[in-house]
Amino acid sequence: MRASMLPGALTTALAALLSALVLGPVTESDQIPGWPTATAERARPASLAREPSPIRESLPLTDGRAGLIRDSLDAVRSAIEESGAAVDRSSVPRYDPGPPGPKGCTLPDPTRPGGCLTAAARHGLEAMAAEFGGWREGPVIRSASCWDVHAWNPASDHPHGRACDLFPSAPGAFPEGEELANGWRVANWFRANAASLRVEYLIWQGRYWDPSVPDADGWGRPYTGGGVYDVRDPTGGHFDHLHVSFAE
């Protein structure tokens, strides 16, 4: 994941960890479980030998630097947890399709009078609202829009009631700081709980993800706009909102 896609606290923590790591190999006396020691570096087979590093040669890691690495790792772990990348899946209510019966866009859409949602989309919206304090002028999501005609893109999931757009900041603006971090929290929460919530795919910050997509140079893969949207635009590139589509 590129640094520009990460919450600020996590970017800072990763930078501190990188700075600590390049100072040299850990010695046996530092005793960090699982960390390669200076002896292990010397014992590496010639076929696996790396180019010598002037920094490693001139700045052997002391006990103090080992402590710096420990502190940096703790900071990274905390930043990941606070950003929402690590989520307790057990707290998320799993979507239950219920008994056989009419499906489709049959439930009222609370974000748009006269609109409709599928049962999975309504469940996902309500679960998100319960987790993050609502979807209308909430502490994390400022506004939401689900059902919509989307005349310019009839293939969209919005007119079928299977998608919601969640705005952590004002529509039409690139979120920054806390608002950007909040968007990542919600995106990572949906990703972590995709199976329970029947998430089909996500689009956020110019990136596309679905359960079949491995990360490629960042979170998910680059979003192309499908020939419909200008990905340089805050809305077209899904920078100002997180798009969530549900499988049913």
TrEMBL record:
The keyword Flavoprotein does not apply. The keyword Cytoplasm does not apply. Residues 115-227 form the ARB-07466-like C-terminal domain. Residues 28-61, 82-110 are annotated as: Disordered. It comes from the Bacteria. Pfam families: VldE. Keywords: Signal. Residues 1-24 form the signal peptide. This is ARB-07466-like C-terminal domain-containing protein.
